[in-house]
Amino acid sequence: MITKDDLQGHWRRDWIKAPGFADYTTRVHWMQAGDLYADIRVPAQRTELDAFTCLADVPRDMLDPFLEAEGFAGTIDVRDNHCTWRREINWQGVPEVDDIGLMSFKDEGLIEDGVLAEYRELWQAEPGEPLRGHRITFGDMTGILVENDAVFLIGIGPAPSSNDNLGVQFASTYALGNWEGADGVATLSTNPFCEGQTVLRRDAGFTWHAPSFDGATTARRLIAA
Asked: Do the Cβ atoms of 172 and 157 come closer than 8 Å?
């Protein structure tokens, strides 16, 4: 029997398979701490942006590959080997169906079989210390931060809503990274200009270095619980 306790920790996806489809390259990470989780999914192949300094400078057609990324966060409910990921925030907007997986451990790792959609995913546990989960807010933005003393995964943004405004979409931040002292440096993000940059700083709490569509970065003190 799979329980919530079995799903704690940092998980990396090896692959997803569905009828007529298989993906072995998208970089997918899911971090679970208690009821709280955050998830980020970034395609391996993305347009080179060295000639630009911010998203606003990038031609619209060149941004299309970046819009294939995904990030979401919220809480899980596990019953009878079925895990439901409740998406309180979602970078790609409101999902069409609930996210429910039938979970099982096999020799190759943790298997997730879709319940309301036909797919199978293989997950591997990443070694590391236990994770801490925090609900975070800034103004009208909410999110989840999952972290330990080595790594973090943050998702923060408005409640899920479908829109075509790139400035609004990229106002959200989904980023995986490592702590370098007090600085949380992103290694993977839905905003490519965050990668290699400090997106979090920790002392008695957490400060989010929020990027804007035009390249400005604002330090925002997060309220964390």
From this structure: yes
For the question of whether the overall pTM of this predicted structure is more than 0.70, the answer is yes
Strands of the 223-224 sheet, one edge to the other = 217-221, 206-211, 198-202, 183-189, 173-180, 151-157, 141-147, 132-138, 223-224
Domain with CATH 2.40.128.320 in the chain: 4-126
CB atoms within 10 A of CB 16: 18
**What DSSP string describes 31-78?**
EEETTEEEEEEE-S-----TT-SSGGGS-HHHHGGGGG-EEEEEEEEE
CATH architecture label of 4-126: Beta Barrel (2.40)
For 196, the enclosing helix (H) or strand (E) is none
The pLDDT of 128-149, averaged and rounded, is 97
